[in-house]
Specification:
Blueprint (H helix, E strand, L loop, with lengths): L8 H13 L9 H12 L35 H11 L9 H5 L2 H28 L1
């Protein structure tokens, strides 16, 4: 499956889940094992979403239903959940693009946090400079 021209969720989901947990969500020992771990979360993809031009058939994986993402990422908020599930979409045509992911509201909240932290750090630094004078 790694030979498929569009990136599979095994490659695209890692950055999003790493942001959520600061550690890899899928610790597979091969591409096939990684896909199995992804399918543990999203369920086995539908037949129409499985690529035709790959050597690994869909039936090489056990059928399984999707599981709640909170089972794997307990502290995820709604925006993080939405982004991660969009990154995990198996079908590249249904998966969020990198551009759209960067514009996702999940990152808007992070930008506000960064601005608040920068503002706080700046005012703390100015306060320290005044106290030192």
């Amino acid at each position: 499956l790694a030979a498929v021209p569009s990136y599979l969720p095994v490659y695209t989901a890692q950055p999003a889940d790493t942001l959520a947990m600061y550690k890899p969500l899928f610790r597979g020992n091969s591409d096939v094992d990684q896909l199995g771990k992804i399918f543990d979360v999203i369920g086995l993809p539908e037949e129409e979403d499985w690529p035709n031009d790959v050597a690994l058939p869909r039936n090489a994986f056990a059928s399984r239903p999707a599981q709640p993402i909170e089972k794997f990422v307990p502290d995820i908020d709604e925006m993080g959940k939405d982004l991660l599930l969009k990154c995990l979409a198996f079908n590249p045509a249904k998966r969020i693009s990198a551009y759209a992911a960067l514009s996702h509201p999940y990152f808007h909240d992070l930008e506000k946090c960064k601005e608040n932290l920068d503002s706080h750090m700046s005012s703390s630094q100015n306060s320290s400079e005044v106290n030192a004078s």
